[in-house]
Amino acid sequence: MGCPNTCSFCNQRAISHTASAPTAEQVSVILKNTVFSHGNTEIAFFGGSFTAIERDYMLSLLEAAQPYIQNGKASGIRISTRPDKINEEILDILKKYHVTAIELGAQSMDDEVLSANERGHSANDVRSASELIRKNGFELGLQMMTGLYRSTVEKDRQTAYEIVGLRPDTVRIYPTVILKNTRLGELFQNGEYVPYSFEECAELCAELLELFEKNNIRVIKLGLHASETVESDMLGGFYHQAFREICEGIIFSKKIAAEISQSGKITVFTAQNAVSKAAGHKGCNKKYFAEKGIYIKFKPDKNISGRNILIQKDE
Ligand code: SF4
Fold it and tell me: 124 Cβ partners below 8 Å, 6+ apart?
């Protein structure tokens, strides 16, 4: 709701599982039936351009959330919106209603890509909205897409560098999924839009994940949310339930490759929660190295954290 135009890739109804937006009363019922993890739960209004919806309706939704902020069950409210629908006036309202985090659909920082995908805003809108949001003390989230129509791997990289420069607290990275009944779907079907290969897309997203993490920006989503609707409406592009795990596997594979020079048996020690990530999705790293004559055992080590690894030669 609230979108002045339809972006080339968007079939929001397919993504948000619903053909109608909830009323404030329905939001109250949902919240009443929600089990809150005390003080550690945020109420989120996603799936559209929240600050662009009809004002009274927006206020009624925010009102419905207030009792849970006041009794401390919810720590705050998150919303997602378009970069061109942020200004001082709207931020004052959001502050008054205890909105704590604002996510902007930036998608690309390249004006040509934005225009080719009918986003209806510019990269400059992302820059100014991000600055305003940060200046007003909100948590800033930026969402970017990879492999949009008329984008390239290099343009996607540049978008990520620019996003790092805008210093968001969180980022979501969405590889483009081509849905039925979208402009992008038409362009794909008539051959005008050719998506990246899966390998190209996963390699790029792995690189971006590392880039954001190195800059202390939390990547809170990599790939679209699991959804049967997206799967059934998908014409092409990238949707995989374990997409993040695949990207993490690529990062580990590169780390291992950089540290071993000859074939043989080795043990790779990782953080306790990283053993399966290091072995790769369905053990693909293990298989990949075995084909090169490098036989790896993966083991946890409680002294190792993050994506660090320690390699021991076994013979
Ligand atoms: S602004 Fe977001 S919700 Fe609206 S049409 Fe574009 S992608 Fe879809």
Answer: none
The residue contributing the CA closest to ligand 1 atom 1 is 3
Q: Where in the chain is the domain with CATH 3.40.1260.20?
A: 249-313
Q: Answer whether 6 contacts ligand 1 (Cβ < 6 A).
A: yes
pLDDT at 14: 54
User: Residues spanned by CATH 3.20.20.70 within the chain?
Assistant: 12-241
What's the distance, Cα to Cα, between the start and end of the chain in Å?
A: 62
Class for domain 12-241, per CATH? Answer: alpha beta
Average pLDDT (32-57) is 90
Q: Are 186 and 149 in contact (CB under 8 A)?
A: no
Q: Is the pTM of this model over 0.85?
A: yes
Q: Which CATH architecture has domain 249-313?
A: 3-Layer(aba) Sandwich (3.40)
Give the list of residues 6+ apart from residue 238 with CB closer than 8 angstroms, or none: 147, 175, 176, 177, 195, 196, 198, 201, 202, 223
223 lines ligand 1 (CB under 6 A): no
pLDDT per position as a tens digit, 158-179: 999 999 999 999 999 999 999 9
Cα pseudo-dihedral 87, 93, 98, 104, rounded to 10: -30
Please, which pLDDT band fits residue 128 given cuts at 50, 70 and 90? Answer: very high
- Per-residue pLDDT averaged across 4-26, rounded? 78
pLDDT above 80 (res 18):
no
Query: Measuring CA to CA, which residue among 109, 172, 114 is closest to residue 140?
Result: 172
Q: Which of 234, 224, 225 is nearest to 180 (CA)?
A: 234
Angstrom distances, CA of residue 14 to CA of 21, 22, 207, 298: 13, 16, 29, 40
Best residue among 9, 12, 17, 142 to mutate for probing ligand 1's pocket (most ligand atoms within 8 Å of CB) is: 12
Q: What is the pLDDT averaged over residues 135-147? A: 98
